[in-house]
Amino acid sequence: MTESPLSPDGGPAPGTQGVRFGFFTDTSICIGCEACEVACKEWNGVPDNPVGFSGLSYDNTLDLGANAWRHVAFVERPAADGEPFAWLMASDVCKHCTSAACLEVCPTGAIFGTEFGTVVVQDDVCNGCGYCVTACPYGVIERRASDGGAWKCTLCYDRFKGGQQPACAQACPTDSIQFGPLDELRARAADRAEEVVAAGHPRAQLYGHDPDDGVGGNGAFFLLLDDPEVYGLPPDPVTPTRQIAQMWRTAGVAALAAAVAIVGAVFGDRR
Amino acid sequence: MGSNMAECHPVGFQWVVEAQARGATVFHVDPRFTRTSALADHYVPLRAGSDIAFLGGVVNYILSGDHDFRDYVLAYTNASHVIVDGVALPDDLDGVFSGFDESTRSYDHATWQYGGEDVDIVSAAGRRERVVAEADRVEEGGQAFEGVSIEKGGRIEKDPTLQHPRCVYQLLKRHYARYTPELVADACGVSVEQFRELAQALCDNSGRDRTSVIVYSVGWTQHTTGVQCIRAASIIQLLLGNMGRPGGGILALRGHASIQGSTDIPTLYDLLPGYLPMPSVGRHDTLDSYEQRTSSRKGFWANSRAYMVSLLKAWWGDAATPDNDFCFGYLPRISGDHSAYRTAIDMLDRKVRGYILLGQNPAVGSANSRLHRLALAHLDWLVVRDLTMIESATFWLDGPEIDSGELRPEDIATEVFFLPAAAHVEKDGTFTNTQRVVQWHAKAVEPKGDCRSDLWFTYHLGRRVRAKLAGAGRERDRPVLDLTWEYPMTGLHNEVDAAAVLQEINGWGPQRRPLNGFAELRADGSTACGCWIYSGCYAGGQNATARRVPGSQQSLVAPEWAWAWPANRRILYNRASADPQGRPWSQRKAYVWWDDEAQAWTGHDVPDFPPHLAPDAVPPADAVGVEALAGDDAFIMQADGKGWLWAPAGLVDGPLPTHYEPHESPVRNPVQRRQSSPFREQLPHEHNPTNDASYPFVATTYRVAEHHTAGGMSRHQRRLSELAREMFVEVHPELAALRGLEHGGWATVSSSRSTIEARVLVTERMQPVTVDGRRVHQVGLPYHWGPNGTAPGDAANDLFAIVLDPNVHIQEVKSATCDVTPGRRPRGRKDPG
Question: Which region, left, alpha or beta, applies to residue A216 given φ > 0 means left and ψ of -120 to 50 means alpha?
Answer without folding.
Answer: left
